[in-house]
Amino acid sequence: MLRLAFLFSIIFAHMSFTSPLQGTEQTLSIIKPDGVAGNHIGEILSRFEKNGLRIAAMKMTRLSKNQAEEFYSVHRDRPFFEGLTTFMSSGPIVVTVLEGEDAIKKNREIMGATDPAKAVKGTIRADFASSVQNNAVHGSDAPETAKTEISFFFDKDEILR
Ligand code: IDP
Ligand code: MG
């Protein structure tokens, strides 16, 4: 009997984390320091939920300059790298794993274009961003980057269902 309970607890523990449900996808979202400082956490998270994305993991944290440089290392040769990583380490951020059908693309649509001046009205960046750099949110751009970005912030057992 005890052995059976033990077996079930292992099965349930295993079911409770990580891989997305069949037909769904996971993506990493960050509410950047400007979004947090502007008191927009609640509104931004509610946009994800209202659009059918489920929050599967969440934490508020702050990146060191080194961590910001590591996270954005693909952009290391771009002229905006220094400013971007200084900005990203300037205050607390809220990091979430969003899960749902087509989550990566859907999140990018909800976010809007990188430059808020070009973002469609009603998107997060059109409504809350103040410049190309201070653009309120980050979202993964492809399945491979989503995977690396999620594991940058979360252990497997921090992603829940
Ligand atoms: P994305 O966040 O829409 O995917 P990326 O091109 O991947 O845009 O750039 C990463 C981040 O770098 C942007 O979200 C923005 O904060 C910053 N960034 C991109 N282009 C510029 C620029 O021309 N000037 C200043 N910052 C920029
Ligand atoms: Mg990008």
Number of strands: 4
The percent range for helix content is 40-55%
Which compounds are bound in this model? inosine-5'-diphosphate, magnesium ion
**Beta-strand residue fraction:** 15-25%
Question: How far apart are the first and last residues' alpha carbons, in Å?
Answer: 27 Å
Overall structural class, as computed from helix and strand content, comes to alpha+beta
Q: How are helices and strands ordered from N to C?
A: HEHHEHHEHHEH
Fold topology:
Elements lengths: L1 H14 L9 E7 L1 H5 L3 H10 L3 E8 L3 H7 L9 H8 L4 E8 L2 H9 L12 H5 L8 E3 L3 H11 L8
Antiparallel strand pairs: 1-3, 1-4, 2-3
Helix pairs in contact: 4-5
The structure holds inosine-5'-diphosphate and magnesium ion (MG).
The site of inosine-5'-diphosphate has 9 residues, from loops.
